[in-house]
Amino acid sequence: MTDAPAGRPLLDVDGLTVTFPSPEGRLAVVRDFALTMGREKIGIVGESGSGKSITARSILGLVREPGAVTARRLRLDGTDLLALDASGWRALRGRKVGMILQDPKFSLNPVQRIGDQIEETLRLHERTSRSERRARALAMLEAVGIEDPERMYRAYPHELSGGMGQRAMIAAMLVSSPDLLIADEPTSALDVIVREQVLRLLDRLVAERGLGLILISHDLPMVARFCDRILVMYRGRVVETLDARRLSDAAHPYTRGLLACLPSAATRGRLLPTLARDAAWEIAP
Amino acid sequence: MTAQTPGTAPTVAVADLDVFYGEGRKRFHAVRGASLAVAGRETFGLVGGSGSGKSTLLRVLAGLWNSWQGTVTVAGTALTPERAPPRAFHRRVQMVFQDPYASLNPRHTVDRILSDGLELHGFADVDRRIRDGLDQVGLGPRFRFRYPHELSGGQRQRVAIARAVALEPEVLLLDEPTSALDASVQAEILNLLAAIRRERPVTCVFVSHDLAVVAHLCDRIAVMQRGAIVEHLGVEDLVADRVRHAYTRELLAASAGGLAPLADAP
Predict the structure, then answer these.
(1) What was the pLDDT predicted at A285?
(2) For the segment A168-186, what is each residue's pLDDT rounded down to a tens digit?
(3) Interface contact A273, partner B, CB < 8 A
(4) Is the per-residue pLDDT at B263 higher than 80?
(5) Residue of A nearest to B154 (CA)
(6) pLDDT average, residue stretch B39-54
């Protein structure tokens, strides 16, 4: 899985391991994760507890004590993330890498207007005038498909629907032009139609701005439609890496099981195949 | 209205239903003129996006919301607006909610969660019913004295289903019971629901925004948008792509287009 683009990779991770203490000693929730990516769309797929979200949080320096992150290599656009201190991380987050979480109700500040939240990254990372910040926030709201940017700029999060909230979140993350965007289940709180709209929006923005994207989800078919490469995680470990256009080539029984258990009109009147989990999946090949 | 088995009264019948939240100028009209009929032992899907009114309609059927106008009959009981249904109604009509984390009391063991309902409704041999109920949902006796926080999401949803089914309801109302679960766990719960349908004379109304799940499980479907039912469909219409309303088409493209690359979609 080293078809990295020519030149310096955007993200270069090797041997990433995240552990938490437990009564039986330190428990690894991410084991030996490796990813070399350029400005492409990578999907990380797995069930609850597979370690996909913790992997993303460790790339953002957001794993807190008593969790511990170790890696042979963890570099973002040449910066050694393992050597960063707290202020180094703060300078990086928002400016170089942004993150969108599942539910905008919890990730937006409920007592701050949307416009202020979008401008916050600019205030923190760039020397900009008030009017410039406002102009960029409004332009960003327009770019994420908000019909009345002025009204959205003044709105509070509770006044927004799920889809509008997620658009505001995307605007806040992209306004300072990061190189890498990490989206952790960005659409799983949305209904199917709004999900489709938000995915198309993300797809367009990532292409227009030449971003690298890591999309994390439990929804394998959705990720396959959206990404170039897919990493399938099971209990902390990547068990398979797939070309997204070749989902049917999946060889690992876990990946095949995830695909087989999906309901549809074609499965009517039949029992759905369920996963017969194998302890061997947890052991490195 | 759509066809139902001739000669039998529907188990769930709704005519010209309007549902409201709030009062006066702030009154919100959540369901507008909805009509539907579900025959005995049928599984009926209620599909729509967020805010379409599908969960509100289900709450009226469950007797959990009574600010409405129209005619609603469920399991032989004609409901009356502004009045709570009799206790026996809640035994005959049971609901399973979307979020198994929020719908089970975190301070009660599985045993207590199941026995409360059975005792409230005057069931004899509660002990045997709890054992049978846990067996039927595939949990078994070792889960009986655990607390919800000791269970996974799928196990909690099994407890919620066991709680509902233990009361031998005539009507089971399911509000997105699998949308908070992983795909493999969703498959297990859908298989469980299919087994319950096979073994028991129960009529189901299943609310979802996911047409793929609904097409797998349901016989007939009503599509809701902004409070109104815009289309009634048999599942064979869905399969054969005999869909008339633009909103249904959009839903279909978004849920069943699962394997089409994003760029190829319209």
Answers:
(1) 65
(2) 999 999 998 899 999 999 9
(3) yes
(4) no
(5) A48
(6) 93
Q: A215 to chain B: which residues are within 8 Å by CB?
A: none
ipTM of the complex: 0.84
The three-point CA angle B3-B177-B180 to 5° equals: 140
Cα–Cα distance list, B58 to A79, A89, A198, B33, B170 (Å) = 54, 48, 28, 15, 15
Q: Exposed e or buried b for every residue in B164-190, given b needs 16+ CB within 10 A?
A: bbbbebbbbbbbbbbbbbbbbbbbbbb
C-alpha A114/C-alpha A81 separation (Å) is 30
Nearest to A191 among B49, B187, B190 (CB): B49
- Distance, in Å, from the CA atom of A255 to the CA atom of A242, rounded to the nearest integer, reads 10
Nearest to A264 among B49, B212, B253 (CB): B212
pLDDT tens digits along A77-92: 999 999 999 999 988 9
Mean pLDDT, rounded, of chain B: 89
List the structure tokens of A103: 């539910």
Q: Long-range contact list for A91-97, CB < 8 A, 24+ apart?
A: A91/A125, A92/A61, A93/A60, A93/A61, A94/A121, A94/A124, A94/A125, A94/A173, A94/A176, A94/A178, A95/A121, A95/A125, A95/A176, A95/A178, A96/A178, A96/A179, A96/A180, A97/A59, A97/A60, A97/A178, A97/A179, A97/A180, A97/A181, A97/A182
pLDDT for the residue numbered B259? 38
Q: Which residues of B touch A220 (CB under 8 A)?
A: 183
Tens of pLDDT, residue by residue over A92-127, are: 988 899 999 887 777 889 999 999 999 998 888 888
